[in-house]
Amino acid sequence: MILQSLTLQNFRNYTKAAFDFSPQTTIIIGLNAAGKSNLIESIFLLATGKSNRSEKEKQLIQFGKSVCRITGEIQGQDGEKEKLEIAMVDQGTVFLKKKYLVNGIARRRVDFAGHITCVLFTPADLDLVSGQPGNRRRFLDEVLEQVDMDYRLSVSLYTKALRQRNALLEQVQETGSRNAKQFAYWDEVLIKNASVISYKREEFIEAINARQKDFFPCLLTYDKSLMSAERLLQYKDAEVGAGVTLVGPHRDDVIIQTYHEKSKELVDVRYFASRGQQRLVTLELKLAQIAYMLEKTGAKPLLLLDDIFSELDSVNIKKVLQLAGQHQVVITTTHKEFVEDAGLKQVEMVELEK
Length: 354
What we know:
By secondary structure, this protein is of the alpha/beta class. The protein has two domains: 1-117 and 299-354, P-loop containing nucleotide triphosphate hydrolases (Rossmann fold), CATH 3.40.50.300; 132-296, Up-down Bundle (Glutathione S-transferase Yfyf (Class Pi), Chain A, domain 2). It has twelve helices and 14 strands. A six-stranded antiparallel β-sheet has the order 2-1-4-5-6-7. Strands 8-12-13-3-14 form a five-stranded parallel β-sheet, sandwiched between helices. A three-stranded antiparallel β-sheet has the order 9-10-11. Strand 12, helix 11 and strand 13 (329-333) form a beta-alpha-beta unit. Helix 4 (133-147) packs across helix 5 (149-175), helix 4 packs parallel to helix 10 and helix 5 (149-175) runs antiparallel to helix 6 (180-210). It is globular, with a radius of gyration of 22 Å. It starts with a strand and ends with a strand.
């Protein structure tokens, strides 16, 4: 799939803007706060139906406005074109009203995501290695939700069931009374979908480990929080005390290790790798993401390189750009000279005003 054009209305700092993209390389140039990362975020939204930056979706709508719209036109390998659209409305409640449309026809997010796939490179990716478990879970979801409908559906059902079960636990805290039938229903939904999520995550992690590492050697271990009727029973009293469900994929983690230079033993990269080495591990994970998505869909994902020149040295920048030459890529940067010597072909430049 090729992203041909994008139109933004009341999205972040864009009141109204339109962009055309090269089938090879488009470079977005602008000073800080010009809207480069906002543009990248809008493309990520079209691919996944989710923001890569904000948990509070109201922040996506321009201040003072109540509606925003993101529209993109894509072209498939067969030349067929599709129009993707996301509309968000602030109705004054906690959650936004969102509509996902494909060629003007409303779709659920699980049916909308994956029409175009993307891999995002951003300076914040270092948190994938050094940050909290939630960052690594989001990485797994980012990959698998784009390429696997069963995974998207299971995550959606699991998330809704988890919200309902946690609400029941809060009621038990307040009233001291437990509705066994309601818990049994939501437990069954959680266990069924947790099984799918865990299986798909493990499969992806095994694929990463099977790949040759070009930047930095690393090994991933799936630290799975198993969800079963027995474990839910085991944590029954503790969950009432906490008011939340304590086991399941929402508690998963991924342990990333490498071999210590002296002892040759496996060590956690969070504690035994330098910041520069952690960046290289992040690149390995992104390369694995690209390969996995290509294998699963048969289509090369769009690469979004958001300000990577500020984080990587010249050698690794060249490696990433060599890879980018094989894909459609959108690159953001503050200075044109950062990419003038990269040897990229069919480059389209877009300069943003602050």
